[in-house]
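All the exercises in this workshop are built on plain-text protein records. The record below serves as our worked example for the rest of this section.
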Amino acid sequence: MQVDNRIHKLTGQINKHLKVIGRLAGMDVLLTTYVARHTYATVLKTSGVSIAIISEALGHESEAVTQTCLKSFEKEVIEQANEFLL
């Protein structure tokens, strides 16, 4: 339980600093560990890395979890691209 609490606290601190970095860089997206993790997975996928390797790298229990995460993130990217066109 102490480890979980420490991880939660550190993640919060990291997210706070990432948001500052994102603002200083003039980014529209709020940077968080969640965004970094999904960006990492998406870059791997678009680089041709197998879902099995990505799943292992992210520590997912199954490839199905990884596929679900990547699909949801892809939808967001497509929606953002469509908004850009409009």
The two ends are 48 Å apart (CA to CA). The first helix runs from residue 2 to 24. The chain is about 80% helix and 0% strand. The chain has two domains: 1-31, 33-86.
